[in-house]
Design brief:
Elements: H1 5-23, E1 30-32, E2 40-42, H2 45-55, H3 57-73, H4 77-96, H5 101-128, H6 132-170
Antiparallel strand pairs: 1-2
Length: 174
């Protein structure tokens, strides 16, 4: 699997957009999850999913790494790891399914929940020194957050992708 110049350019722009969404604080870029306001819904995953839909998994991984780089650059290693694991689990699960959009979206969302439940179980204890009992109590809430965040990423990305494809076809750029 290779990535061409056009794919790199588009993935870079989408990664920069994700990066920007991560930098700009407050709504609509960060909305506290009502059941646990320490995590926020955001739209940084939408450009990553658009990258996947346009050019495939390699472009999506590249877009994800560019988009989440700011978290690491700010020195938030744990936050960056949570974000990369969450986004990649959604993107790669979606890319690996050869079914309808609804099935792919559902499986990708549940994959994110499973991967992030395991990640949260260990990383919250390790990075934030949370007692195991508290972490276990948070896992169902974080699972709801992760499922909803996956849907927030996937649905708008499909709408955007459809419009981009229509535009490209109308202009004869395909």
């Amino acid at each position: 699997m290779t990535i061409g110049t056009r794919e790199i350019a588009v993935s870079s722009v989408l990664g920069a957009l994700s990066f920007l969404f991560e930098v700009v604080p407050g709504p609509p870029f960060d909305i506290p999850f009502p059941l646990y306001p320490r995590v926020t819904w955001d739209i940084t995953g939408i450009p990553m999913m658009v990258s996947l839909l346009l050019y495939g998994p390699l472009s999506a991984v590249y877009t994800c790494l560019v988009g989440t780089a700011i978290i690491f650059l700010r020195g938030n290693i744990s936050g960056g790891l949570f974000k990369v694991v969450a986004e990649l689990s959604t993107l790669l699960a979606y890319a690996s399914i050869r079914k309808s959009t609804i099935v792919k979206s559902t499986i990708a969302s549940f994959t994110r929940v499973i991967v992030m439940t395991i990640t949260n179980y260990y990383m919250l204890q390790f990075f934030y020194k949370m007692p195991k009992k508290i972490v276990i109590g948070l896992l169902p809430v974080l699972a709801m957050f992760n499922f909803s965040q996956a849907i927030i990423n996937i649905i708008p990305a499909h709408i955007i992708h459809k419009r981009i494809r229509t535009f490209i076809q109308d202009k004869g750029l395909v």
